Amino acid sequence: MSYNFFAMHSRMKYINRWALMRNTQSENISEHSNDVAVIAHALAVISNLRFGGKLNAEKAAFLGLYHDMNEIITGDMPTPVKYHSSGMREAFAKVEDMASERLLSMLPEDMQDYYRSAFFQAPEDEYLWKIVKAADKISALIKCIEEQKAGNNEFGKALESTKKSIEKMELPEAEVFIREFIPGFYLSLDEQNGD
Predict the structure, then answer these.
(1) What distance in Å separates the CA atoms of residue 31 and residue 25, rounded to the nearest whole number?
(2) 78-123: per-residue pLDDT in tens?
């Protein structure tokens, strides 16, 4: 028997983010999910090393890799539309759940439970999902910084609102990441290299 889950996963590269905004560099959900996985892993490591956490950093990366896969079916709904009202958000959450179930059905039955936690939050993964949400926001912040560095003022408001949404999360791991790693994104390649 043949299964289509990973063939569908490979289509993440065709779903572009930031559809309502002028971009100097397009970003698809495959690239974004890789960034979220890397940042989520780092946040979990920070939690464990700096705050005595006992998080599974590898699972944080796993959740980050798949956190937007259902957008292959739903598309990337622009934030102003998705969060326009509680009714809109609830309706879209149902659509996302249906898309997630559809994708899970594309796996062999014995693999579905393993991947289910990447689509549906298990109670034991609650804090890991907060980490992934913070990583998602930090990835958006980085995109805003990169666009502004390229002279694109379209992302100014998004940068400010993304900073505020990260602050509202009150996650010490995210605060450390912002303080210690975000300044490097404002530097040129030569400056990052120490030249």
Answers:
(1) 12
(2) 666 666 678 778 887 898 999 999 999 999 999 999 999 999 999 9
Query: Are 118 and 53 within 8 A, CB to CB?
Result: no
Q: What pLDDT does residue 76 have?
A: 72
> What percentage of the chain carries pLDDT values higher than 70?
95
- How distant is the alpha carbon of residue 93 from its chain centre? 16
- Report yes or no: 92 and 82 within 8 Å, Cβ to Cβ: yes
Neighbour count for residue 36 (Cβ, 10 Å): 28
Q: Report the candidate in 27, 10, 8 with the shortest Cα–Cα distance to residue 99.
A: 8
| Cβ contacts of 181 within 8 Å, gap of 6 or more | 42
| Close Cβ partners of 105 (under 8 Å, ≥ 6 residues apart) | 112
Query: Residue type for 89, please?
Result: R
Which residues lie below 8 Å from residue 129, measured CB to CB, with a gap of 6+? 63, 121
3-state secondary structure 30-77: HHHHHHHHHHHHHHHHHHHHHCCCCCCHHHHHHHHHHCCCCHHHHCCC
Asked whether residue 137 carries a pLDDT value surpassing 80, the answer given is: yes
